[in-house]
Amino acid sequence: MLKFYAIVIALLLCRFAVAQKADSTSTLQEVVVTAFEQNRVVNSGTIVKILQPGAADMQNKISLVTAFNSIAGVRLEERSPGSYRLNLRGSTLRSPFGVRNVKVYWNDIPVTDPGGNTYFNQFAFNNFSSIEIIKGPAGSMYGAGTGGAVLIHSFSNNTVPAVKFEYIGGSYGLQNVLSSVNYGTAKNQGVISFAHNESDGYRNHTQSKKDNFSYCTQNNITGKQQINTSILYTNLYYQTPGALTLNEYRLAPHQARPAAGGFPDADAAHAAIYQKTFTAGVSQVYHFSDAIKNTTILYGSFAQFKNPTFRNYECRIEPSFGGRTTFSYTRKNNTMVTRLVAGAEFQQGYFNIQTAKNKNGTPDTLQTNDDVHFGNASFFAQADISIHDDWIITAGASINTTKVGFTRLSTYPVADQKRTYKNEISPRIAIEKKLSGTTVFGSISKGFSPPTTAELLPNTGVISTFLEAEEGINYEAGLRSSFLHNRLHTELTGFYFRLNHALVTRKDSSNADYYVNAGNINQKGAEANADYALLPHSHFLKSIYFQSSYTYFHFKYGDYSKGTASYMGKTVPGIPTGTFSFIVNIQSRSGFYLNNNFYTAGKIFLDDGNTAAANAYHLWGGRVGYKTPAQRVWVYHFYAGADNLLNETYSLGNDFNAAGGRYYNTAAKRNFYAGIAMQWNAATQKNAGKTKSF
């Protein structure tokens, strides 16, 4: 069925492309990719931007799920409101909750902590203007990791002084407030933002509330020096309803987990997450000359995490600090551009993790008390050569080391355990060749990913320094083409990634998570994207934009067994075999617009033995709105929309290998929302013929 959808959409795109007259003055927007320090204009590829300036108002600002899932090879899941899980080509294998094995940067600051965990839910929609995603191993530049990297940027090249306010209300008690102030000039600018979100949730026991504040500046001190600051604070609370069995899921999908097996229900346990995060960093960009540049970042962060669960009550205090420095040298001549990059990154964290018995939502008898020291360092170098702008050759590598130490304070005598994962080289070679209307590309990269804090110290409380690091080599090849004066873009990518010592989650008899190395996994896949901008000759319609993506994953276990049971050849759980996304955005010249999005995911196996599976599901959403021209002093935006119009019952974020068959975390049924936004543009005011700023 998914292949049928992909073929139909491809034919429709070709039909529209042939039917329309070319207009070279109106093309799809190109973007500048900063990943791997290339700063090169591309339209798509293994490195993609999912959110761009000017397109943000067409996105659903309640959740990032729709935007992320419109990209082939990318899957964002929300187990309950406020709980994200990010999958880049299968990286949720080791993430029953949270974001792991994906390195995330915000304004060049690593927000992935030294222990490998990322509180991705700390971000609000107005914390960034664009997001880049790197799929596959990115260790040649971004340290340990086999899943990929995410680069988040707060500023864009066309940021203007403005005051913005937006309110969204909707089903299940949804209230979302987004506000920001952009000030300054192109050379010296800043943005202050505040966001508030709260909801009762579709399921019982899924209330959530989040307050988010950020402050970012870019200041050009001299023609050579720029100082940037970034501050982010989030206070988040959300209830965790727990997973359901198949019968519970079918009979009452909105219910929270009931009492079972000696454990209380979600309400009695007061199961929830209390999370506060703070990150602050300062960076300097210094140009020694036109050819030599250095970027250096220093940062500190702090996280406080409390989690009463069905089994226990966990408290974590996680301060950390780190830095990153990058030197680049660029040389240009008539036929060739050479860019050399070298640098280093380090992180150090001093965590305290306590687990106690949960007594009606308060910590009772202490079970474990651990001090955790987690540090890592990465040294990297890369050469990038562009010949006649037709050949682009990139070769880079990094050396990584990770040290972890545990001190169990709750036992006597006090016990220490240590483990070092070191001297792992992560190389990457990529080649790109431009032909007539088509670009072919290929890459080989190696990834290395040591266990995270949550894997070394799982819910069972057993310190697991015996776990080995994942490692593997990824082979990738593809082609992308542009047609009809750059209005139709297509791309096809294939990859093969053999992952050794793969870390996967398992559950004990009490449903507590623990982790094992699962031998090897053969990950094969294909990804296809197509987008087309239709510009009709009409007094009413301004544009019709089509975007589609299709992902096919064939992930199988290699030599992996548990006891006498062999899982060789079994499909890896938690990953749909295929996904398909299709978006249509219709804009009128008067300011009215209509946006439709469709997403479908195939069957997902839920255990290593492939004995249980979640059915395929199909989601359809859309919104209508009106927005005044962005060039005016006052800009107004009104809209209303709906998600899951087909009223599907589905689980977005399943539990894997769960005891008692508790796999299912039900997502919201059909729901509606409406919003109003106002923006005051100071840059459009003119005083004595001069543009005003503040």
Summarize the structure in words.
This protein has 694 residues and is mostly beta strands. The chain has one domain (2-691): Maltoporin, Chain A. The chain contains 6 helices and 41 strands. The chain has a 22-stranded antiparallel barrel. Strands 3-10-11-7-8 form a 5-stranded mixed sheet, with no helix packed on it. Strands 1-2 form a two-stranded antiparallel ribbon. β40 (686-687) and β41 form a beta hairpin. It is globular and about 65 Å long. It starts with a helix and ends with a strand. Mean pLDDT is 87; it is low at 4-28 and 686-694.
CATH topology value? Maltoporin, Chain A
Structural category: mainly beta
Radius of gyration equals 25 Å
Mean pLDDT: 87
How many separate domains?
1
Largest sheet: 22 strands, antiparallel, barrel
Strand content is over 45%
- Supply the CATH class: Mainly Beta
What shape does the CA trace take? globular
Unreliable residue runs: 4-28, 686-694
How many strands in all?
Answer: 41
| CATH architectural grouping | Beta Barrel
- The proportion of residues forming helix, as a percent range, comes to under 10%
Structure annotation, total helices: 6
